[in-house]
Design goal:
- The structure holds two protein chains of two kinds.
- Chain A is about 0% helix and about 55% strand.
- Chain A contains no helices and eleven strands.
- Chain A is mainly β.
- Chain B contains no helices and twelve strands.
- In chain B, the strands form three sheets. In chain B, strands 2, 5, 6, 10, 11 and 12 form a six-stranded mixed beta sheet that branches. In chain B, strands 3-9-8-7 form a four-stranded antiparallel beta sheet, with no helix packed on it.
- In chain B, a hairpin with a 5-residue loop joins strand 10 and strand 11.
- Chain B is globular, with a radius of gyration of 14 Å.
- Classes of the chains: A mainly beta, B mainly beta.
- At the A-B interface, strand 5 and strand 9 of A face strand 5, strand 10 and strand 11 of B.
Chain lengths: ~120, ~110
């Protein structure tokens, strides 16, 4: 089956530092990857959509300079939280859409929990 | 635009009983898909079931079935013979062909009692 990994699964950092989260499709090529954010007991909110080789499309209200997304290859997308602050503490989930199959198909990574002290 | 509504913040069910989780949606997209995901405390999103807007029959996957009523714009999840391991957050989500993104409902926390 299609597997998406995220690294790290847990990260604790000091306020003001930057944190990079990787999302990899392990056994398929992902033309599109999505990044979501989820606060405890709340829904998933789409942050941005990234297509390989092009700039990410951010949802309204998401700071582009704060959340840098790079989709450099068909199997890797990265989310960098720049100058992280405690309010950025959240659960970040990526999903990847294969180049083949229906447009609605996407596979989720296991998520990354970020805690900013 | 598209919207998903889950009106049940929490549901309780006895082990081995069936439970229905409600989901209503709104979209202007003529072609769309409806998903249900399970999210246990670990956080991973587990795909349960999918229904396309043009599918004539309701989707079923093992103990999961999707009660799709297009005219009422509802896509309720039915879990039969609940198990303790079914305790989790459940999300209904919609994909619109022209919208091109998944929109999630607020989620329902299901607790299965022994």
């Amino acid at each position: 089956g299609a597997v998406v990994s995220q690294h790290p699964s847990w990260v604790i950092c000091k306020s003001g530092t930057s944190v990079k989260i990787e999302c990899r499709s392990l056994d398929f090529q992902a033309t599109t990857m999505f990044w979501y954010r989820q606060f405890p007991k709340q829904s998933l909110m789409l942050m941005a959509t990234s297509n390989e080789g092009s700039k990410a499309t951010y949802e309204q209200g998401v700071e582009k300079d704060k959340f840098l997304i790079n989709h450099a290859s068909l199997t890797l997308s990265t989310l960098t939280v720049t100058s992280a602050h405690p309010e950025d503490s959240s659960f970040y989930i990526c999903s990847a859409r294969p180049g083949t199959g229906g447009q609605e198909t996407q596979y989720f990574g296991p998520g990354t929990r970020l805690l900013v002290l | 635009a598209q919207k998903i509504t889950q009106t049940q913040p929490g549901m309780f069910v006895q082990e081995k009983e069936a439970v229905t989780l409600d989901c209503t949606y709104d979209t202007s997209d003529p072609s769309y898909g409806l998903f249900w995901y399970k999210q246990p405390s670990s956080g991973e999103m587990i795909f349960l079931i999918y229904q396309g807007s043009y599918d004539q029959q309701n989707a079923t996957e093992g103990r999961y079935s999707l009660n799709f009523q297009k005219a009422r714009k509802s896509a309720n999840l039915v879990i039969s013979a609940s198990q303790l391991g079914d305790s989790a957050m459940y999300f209904c989500a919609m994909w619109g062909t022209s919208y091109g993104k998944l929109t999630f409902g607020q989620g329902t926390i299901l607790t299965v009692h022994p």
